[in-house]
Amino acid sequence: MSQDGGRTPEILLLGASGKVGTLLRDSWAEAVGEAARLVPVARDGRAGLRWAPGDPLDRLPRVDAVAALWGVTPGPGRDLADNTRLALLAQEIGAATGARVVLHASSGAVYRPGPDPLREEDGPDPVSAYGAAKAEMEAALAGARGPRAVCLRIGNVAGADSLFAAMAQGGTVTLDRFPDGQGPRRSYLDPADLARILAALATADTQSLPPVLNTAAPVATPMAGIARAAGRAVVWREAPEGAAACVALDTERLSRHCPLDHAAASPARLARHAPALDSATEQTS
User: Which domains does the chain have, with CATH numbers?
Assistant: First the structure.
């Protein structure tokens, strides 16, 4: 990981108070140390520098890179088109702060799940409104002005996805079982590994960075394995029609910049981000 004249590179984190941003901040020091410094930004200032869209850009410090982990997820009253607006604003922020690169949070949801690992070359073919919104964001960034834009097609972040939300409800988790007798498998990413990836990409030669990059552990992880490693009992139900047994991201391209080994997909490692059982109420999710 290169540094400019011995100076520690700085990364502006947009969305610092969100689920992923909070997990990233909590993992940063242990994962990255002094190799890169995170500069968190949030609307209320509790997670770092107070700044919100509409505030003057000159309030933001000069940095080497911007990590735009903000965005809009599905929910009542939420406009998924804001993902594109926020991404274009992140490009403006990158230009105003002197950043070399802006790392945008896209999603593995831009792909149509299939039996084989999904590659960047496969192109977007989303099956959900959220995936479609992220694909539209990527398309808008392809012609955007400003610093180098890299869209990170992130897998499930441990501690922030639906499985971990279900585990927060109690000691029992309900999962789909498919005709082969197995449960769902997904490409996961530990927040500490996300920190390492952001630090590596922020200091890489910008010309070597692709416009889109799958961002996950190198192999998919059984969701049941994570639940059991967290001490949760698994209850099975028949998978409904259209449910995806496996969503696996091919990470060969990522490995050129920040290689991760198979331990990154370990259920035990990922399960450490689950809430303690004694703080949850026994429920079926």
Answer: 10-155+191-217+248-262 (3.40.50.720)
